[in-house]
Amino acid sequence: MRPDITLVHPLFICKDPVEEKLMTPYFPLGLMYLAAVLRDHGYTVDLFDCTFREDYREFEAYMREVRPPVVGITSLITIRRHALILADIAHRYGATVILGGPDPTGLPDRYLFYRSGGEFPVDMVVYDEGELTLLDVMRYLHAPGETFQRLEDIPGLRLRGEDGQVHATAPRPLIPNLDALPFPARDLVDMEAYRQAWRKAHGYWALSIINTRGCPYACTWCQKAVFGRTYRSRSAANAAEEMKHIKEVYAPDMLRVVDDITGVNRKWVLQWRDEVLRRDAAIPFECLTRVNLATEEMLSALRDIGCVKIYFGAESGSQKVLNAMKKGIRVEHIYQATERCKRLGIRTYFFMMVGYPGEEWEDLRLSVKLLRETLPDEFSTTIAYPLPGTEFYEQVRDRLMFESEWQLDWDYTAENRLLFRRDKYNTRFYRWVIRWFHKEWEDAWLAAGKPAPWWERVRVKVGLWVTRIMVRLLARVPAAATIRFMPAEGR
Ligand code: B12
Ligand code: SF4
């Protein structure tokens, strides 16, 4: 049957070496929320998920056969290229093409003014939170003039003006009561494919859930295009009810709570714990929080309902760098939070960052000190990347180095490279810094008594000395000499 709308997830794992290696696919909750709301209002929704597909041609075959009148595509900075190619295909088969998500919200012009074969494939961008705006667009497309006379009357849109400018319609207020939303339409997703991919790669499988929207903090590099600097939560009962539903219907081995920050409201966490326990809904889960919020009481509550791992944005061991990032935490908080998690048996994962403006050699050494002394169970390190719309982006705007204007140089996920010119240090240096961090951390674990055979100890020691020498050598190479970037035209 021809659906009223097809929603598209344009992430092809096979086209993204990082995703392929990680193999931790999560279907985007945003599209599932949109589908659930549309279905509640009587629209038929189909889903085209590229996650396990190989090529755009499969979408072309789908469009040829199914011919949905409306196609809604989600997008991130990393998948913009795919989103635009799919938009072009949908447009060629006569669909009204709607884009939404963090990247179209952040940079609507990249979508609205993308041209292919002399045409503009994208008809409109849904800005910010999408549920109610998309519903209004569907109402308009089905019965123009009934609820809205013109697209321009629908709040929350970005349209292509004939003057070559992006035209914004009235702002749409955020949904005040998140409990009013239905649970995400997970039934539309081919869960078996996800289950198999996870199990094959990791021996278990995981699903995602979101309890709150937004974050009140203001880290300079964080893009808050969709929910802004606001914070809304569902009721603890509603969140626990969804957990129970997931446990009964999908029974995943693990849940990932994808809230920006769990525990902005600590009282809420305690209520959530009570509601989950009352329903016997606990599932092992992981979540993200901030070190300054991680009190003993909150961590215990999380552990009581299955929290096995917490991700912390530790970022740096240097207070100077944390302050420059407006991170709003102290280095001592990182020590305290890790220590508490260890006591409670919760694994810790740090997000570290290098290359932030103002960071010097001494600050990198402080990050090494932090990793060696706190010993998180896992960590990853990113070279600071300026996302459009952030304070950090504005700070380095005149020093950006793009090879291709078309996707701000992101060829695939988490491609760790320096995107702006610094007085000192280049991408190669930072890539070695990341290896150095790892070796220091491995060495510190061994020094703390982690059991390992002698050859493993030798491997770590050799690696440690090699990386120490390399970073010292590369720290002396002039910034522009190692990696060549072509600045994009007009920048
Ligand atoms: C969970 C998460 C992940 C998870 C899972 C992603 C997934 N598939 O679910 C993982 C860990 C894999 C991940 C990875 C990455 N992520 Co991430 N992630 C998130 C996070 C925390 C939550 C996403 C979510 O579920 N939101 C909840 C839903 C309800 O909101 P939503 O998706 O925005 O959808 C709403 C609207 O945007 C809109 N909408 C969305 N799509 C569409 C489509 C249409 C047609 C319409 C009308 C509306 C619409 O309506 C929805 C409902 O209101 C967000 C931050 C955030 N708070 O959103 C970052 C975020 C999306 N991630 C981000 C980034 C940068 C990444 C990585 C690049 C990180 C990295 N360095 O590797 C990778 C990229 C992955 C990839 N290959 O593309 C950025 C994106 C920035 C950008 N401009 O693109 C965000 C915004 C974080 C940030 N503040 O910087 N991520
Ligand atoms: S990085 Fe985390 S804590 Fe900082 S503003 Fe973004 S979501 Fe909030």
Structure characterization notes:
The chain has helices at residues 17-22, 29-40, 56-66, 80-92, 102-106, 108-112, 131-142, 191-202, 236-249, 266-279, 296-304, 319-324, 331-344, 361-374, 391-396, 427-447, 454-474, 479-482; strands at 5-9, 45-49, 70-74, 96-100, 124-126, 157-160, 166-168, 206-209, 212-213, 232-233, 254-257, 285-289, 307-315, 347-354, 378-383. The longest helix is centred in the C-terminal third of the chain and has 21 residues, at 427-447. It is built from 18 helices and 15 strands. It is of the alpha/beta class and 491 residues long. The protein folds into two domains: 5-168, Rossmann fold; 204-398, Alpha-Beta Barrel (TIM Barrel). The strands form three sheets. A seven-stranded mixed β-sheet has the order 2-1-3-4-5-6-7, sandwiched between helices. Strands 8-11-12-13-14-15 form a six-stranded parallel β-sheet, covered by helices on one side. The protein has a two-stranded antiparallel ribbon with strand order 9-10. Mean pLDDT is 92; it is low at 480-491. The structure holds cobalamin and iron/sulfur cluster (SF4). The site of iron/sulfur cluster has 9 residues, from loops.
